[in-house]
Amino acid sequence: MPTVEHKAAYRRIIEAVNAGDFDALDALFAADMVDHNPIPDQVPGLAGFKQWMASARGSFPDIRGTVEQVLAEGDLVAGRVIWRGTQAGPFAGVAPTGRFVAFEAYHIARFEGGRVAEWWGNADIFGALAQLGAPLVGPG
After folding, report:
1. Does residue 136 sit within a domain?
2. Which residues contact 70 (CB under 8 A, 6 or more apart)?
3. pLDDT tens across 24-73, in order?
4. Does residue 77 sit within a domain?
5. How many domains does the chain contain in total?
6. Residue 81, Cβ neighbours under 10 Å: how many?
7. Which CATH number characterizes residue 27's domain?
8. Where are the beta strands (DSSP E) in 19-133?
9. Which domain holds residue 39?
10. What is the pTM of this model?
């Protein structure tokens, strides 16, 4: 699969999250994909990615990701997304606030056989929590 198609598939993943289209992920991820940055208690594989998506949409029902950059080389795609949404459900231990947040996330996806086989994701959770007014206390 050429890098142009990998980049398009990455964009379709973000679009599926935006639309809450869980079924669209079946054509984009291998069932046994590995999520290297799962949320607490996330099950393995594609079912786990869908679990993350349900959690994100539960916290921010209007969540929308805007793909800002996508780079591809070989079987890898790297993307930068800005997620925006209004907190209507619990998020990282913070009760619903009704506040709007915008925060960046970075992803790397490794493709195998035309589908994502491995996924790495890192989001600015601290930035989102600060926007929600959560106390950010360090250890000690």
Report:
1. no
2. 7, 10, 11, 77, 78, 79, 80
3. 999 999 999 999 999 999 999 999 999 999 999 999 999 999 999 999 99
4. yes
5. 1
6. 24
7. 3.10.450.50
8. 29-35, 64-73, 76-86, 100-112, 115-123
9. 3-131
10. 0.93
